[in-house]
Amino acid sequence: MQTVEMPEVKPLSVRQAEIAALVVQGRSNREIAETLSLSERTVETHVANLFNKLSIQSRRQVAAALRALEIPADARLNTNLPHQAKKLVGRSLEIAEISRALRSDRLVTILGTGGVGKTRTALQLGAELREEIEGGVWLVELAGIREPSRIWGAIAHAMRVRESPNHPLFDQVVAAIEGKPVLLILDNCEHLIDGVAKAVTALLGACAAVSILATSREPLRIGGERTYRLPSLSIPPRAALATLRAGEATTYSAITLFVERACATNHRFGLTDENAPAVAEICTRLDGIPLALELAAARLNVLSVHGLLARLDQRFEILSNGPRSVLPRHTTMRAVIDWSYDLLGERERRLFEMLAVFAGGCTLEALAALCDEGPNELDILQTLSSLVDKSLVVVVDTARGDVRYNLLESSRHYAREKLAARDEWERLASRHAAVYLDLAERLRRVWLAEQGSLWRALAEAELENWRAALEFALRARGCVTVGQRLVGELYPLWVNLAYKEGVEWLRVALDMVDENTPPAVAGELEYVQAQLALTNLQDVQTGLDAARRSAAWYQQAGDVERATRAQVRVGYSLVRLGATDEGEQLLREILARVRHLGNAQLLGAVLYDLALVRTIAADITSVRTYLAEALDLFESTGNTVGISDAMNNLAEAEYHAGDVEAALQHARRGLTVARAADYNCGTMTHNANIAAYCVALNRFDEAIVYAREALELARDAQSERLLTYALQHHAAIAALQPLDDDDLEIAARIIGFVDASLPFQNGRDPTEEEEAKRIHDALAAALPAQRRTHLLIAGAAMTQEQAIREASLASDRRRPVR
Question: Do 311 and 357 belong together in one domain?
Fold first, then answer.
């Protein structure tokens, strides 16, 4: 029998020893690569280095070399980490941060909600650190343990420590470590939190070379612990979902994971520009939770992407049937949340369920208001802190400097089911609507006072809650009068941020006006309808009719001031419809009455509208007089909305009196006021008007800057009229200062779209009418008649999005090259 003479060999690294053991088992390089999640080329390099260290030439000699080193050929060396069949997606930054934490702290706990990927991240990090840690990386799985007394047994079993009845397990584990650096991964600690905390404290105290990486839904809360809250995978902002394209979508890790798992489930699936918005919506509604994404992607074997999206309201039935290889509590999303819910105390469960009523999170103040006569804010805060620690509630810092508390969407569905099962949902939803009616009234007061951007921050933070309250109050008819009042009080929201939505809610609320509706509530709804029609829709006849009905309702309610306020809108509408004498006479009558009421805001509004009448009459002297008094009143009451609007009116009057520079000066001042107050409607209007004035002065480089901002703001706020005007200003710049023939063609298509759109908005204001004439004259002089006609017709057939893209193209052509 041939013997192999073994020369002295150098020590093997952990990775080389592991590969050597697999070589002895007869594994090929490809099989080793798959087992260890390495590339085949990397394995080839390791094998070559192994042969060099062992001074051998063939795989058949490896076993003898290992025996000489007294290394068992069939051992999994220095670890019990399982092989991961799927690659980890989107966690490189987190793994790097946790790795750095472990180098400076001996105890790091990865925190996170169920299904976020705590275990998978810890395993990946452990695999990457194995070669650095002499004593190895050992996974201690605690999910199946119910008694704290079994924790030491689990640690000993994981580290392959042979138990002896004559010595405590703790002593045996410490002896097995023998001062060598060791990393223990304690996985799923939350149900044994006190026992794990005691075990970790003892182990860290006895073994200076031991480091511990724990995964848990709440901290161990012991000295020296460093926590790392694992975030969800990245998802697109909601505003970007509808227009997201495939190339951009894959920059978000949640979408990357979903697509990868979907392709593994259905080889025919692929991410396209057409399905990217639906995929992004799925990932967003699943909060970027990896487990939820994987369970959802598995359903693409029987559902289309759009079919899956349509069924997410039944997510606990859809997000089930996970792989058999995972823990039972990870096979469905319901089981994941059951695990956390079952660990809660009674007070924690009730507060967790109560949070389901909120949409988009809530403040501590709103939650306390919902509790009504329940626990005080301090008690609620203590319970909230516990839910945050247990990764069931998410804390979000806001731009206002406070914090909001939120449930992930799946947790919210789960908690809502619990409320429904106890017949608590409708009571709490009704209470929620009442709380948010109070908040809407506060919003309107803040908006009128215009305390900087406070009203806007409040509006944007609570938008989803107001939507939820309206859905319950009106569409579900949970408390109709509360819902109708809410629609009226949310006027600042509709006029500045979401006018189309406001018009729709007004329609719903007005359709429900009946004998049970208080006259004052009906009057306010009609008044808001008039305001929206006159401000954004420019549907003056609708505004006039609604203002008349509002005045009648308020007279029935005996509210003289609000009835007068509605009559002011009647006078304004008459003027806008051409009945100037009738409108002016009504406004003058109102002015005489209002001077005796002592209402500065109402008096300012009447003066403002009379200034409009005199603007039409080209009586610039009277306009200046009326607006000077109105501005004094608005400034004395801090009404920056009124100041901004008055400056707009004054600018338009000066423009039509022929002083464009004066108009520009007033508009710039109004823009400054509107921006400082975060008055979106005023900011849009002033930007559009400044663009028009700059076009009139042939200052096109300035004009394009304001036209761009007007277009962006009007698009976000769904303001059809101002968006159309901003498009026209882009057309004017391209037509009156064309860079080339392409600019002329873009201008022709845009003005074709504008011409086709404006009849639905009662035509243009005089400023925009003058500008449109200049555009058409310039195009007629520069383009052949047949070509111009063809381009105008093509523009008229465009959608609004296509027109916006044309305007953006024209704008981008004028941006300076950097």
Answer: no
Question: Can you say how many angstroms the Cα of residue 547 is from the centroid of all Cα atoms in its chain?
Answer: 37
Chain segment 482-527, per-residue pLDDT in tens: 999 999 999 988 887 888 899 999 999 999 999 999 999 999 999 9
Segment 539-549 mean pLDDT: 92
* Stretch among 25-34, 140-149, 350-359 having the lowest mean pLDDT: 25-34
Q: Please state, in angstroms and rounded to a whole number, the distance separating the CA atoms of residues 285 and 572.
A: 45
Of 295, 326, 325, 322, give the one whose Cα is nearest residue 311.
295
* Mean pLDDT across 125-154: 88
Q: Of 423, 458, 474, which residue sits at a domain end?
A: 423
214 shares its domain with 264: no
Q: What is the DSSP string of 480-540?
A: HHHHHHHHHHTHHHHHHT-HHHHHHHHHHHHHT-STTS-HHHHHHHHHHHHHHIIIII--H
The span from the CA of 167 to the CA of 344, in Å, is: 37
Sequence-ordered list of residues with C-beta below 8 angstroms from that of 271, at least 6 positions apart, any chain = 246, 249, 250, 255, 259, 279
Domain hosting residue 47, numbered range? 14-68
Same domain, 98 and 219: yes
Written as six digits, the tokens of 102 are 């472990």
Confidence band of 8 (pLDDT split at 50, 70, 90): very low
Based on the domain organization, do 218 and 272 belong to the same domain? no
Provide the β-strand partners of residue 186: 140, 214
**Inter-CA distances, 576 with 51, 580, 601, Å:** 92, 8, 22
Token code pair at residue 659 = 């002083």
Let me know whether 392 and 370 are in one domain: yes
Are 254 and 90 in contact by the 8 Å Cβ rule? The answer is yes
For residue 265, give Cα distances in angstroms to 258, 261, 270, 310, 360.
10, 6, 11, 19, 32
- The model's confidence at residue 29, banded by pLDDT at 50, 70 and 90, is confident
Angle subtended by helix axes 29-36 and 14-24, to nearest 10: 130
Q: Helices (H), strands (E): how many in the chain?
A: 40, 7
- What would the pLDDT profile of 746-770 be if each residue is shown by its tens digit? 999 999 999 988 754 456 778 888 9
User: Which amino acid, residue 12?
Assistant: L
Residue with tokens 């410490």: 174
Residue 732 included in any domain: yes
Is residue 661 assigned to a domain? no
Of 167, 194, 229, which marks where a domain is finished?
A: 229
Domain match, 63 and 99 both = no
Matching residue, tokens 């006021």: 673
Tokens of 544: 């006039």
Report which DSSP code applies to 362: B
